[in-house]
Specification:
single chain, mainly beta, Immunoglobulin-like, five-stranded mixed beta sheet, four-stranded antiparallel beta sheet, 9 strands
């Protein structure tokens, strides 16, 4: 199974570049970091895991560190971070985040 993400700044109408995103796996009631990256100029991260590896079935979360992104724009934000928890079962997983200083939404993309 594969995983990618895409962050769009809905207030500015463009990709959100430079956001640190952590991938964590749920294990026995705790979380373990298994990858991280920063969104590129297109707001995307496609390589959380080493080439040739993939997700195993289980519960994961993406932690988007949004505070520094908004601070770099001189914008105060209500949410300093966003956590998206999901269950991976099979196939490709694309988890977009639509972000503004005072709200966000996410979905399973393709």
């Amino acid at each position: 199974m594969s995983l990618s993400t895409h962050v769009l700044d809905t207030m500015r109408g463009r990709p959100a570049q430079g956001i640190l995103v952590r991938l964590e796996a749920g294990a026995g009631g705790a979380w373990k970091k298994i990858g991280e990256g920063r969104t590129n100029a297109d707001g995307r991260i496609a390589d959380f895991l080493p080439a040739g590896s993939g997700l195993e079935p289980g519960v994961y979360r993406l932690v988007f560190e949004t505070k520094d992104y908004f601070a770099s724009l001189g914008q105060k934000a209500f949410y300093p971070g966003v956590e998206v928890t999901f269950e991976a079962a099979e196939g490709r997983h694309h988890v977009p985040l639509l972000l503004s200083p005072f709200g966000y939404t996410t979905y399973r993309g393709s």
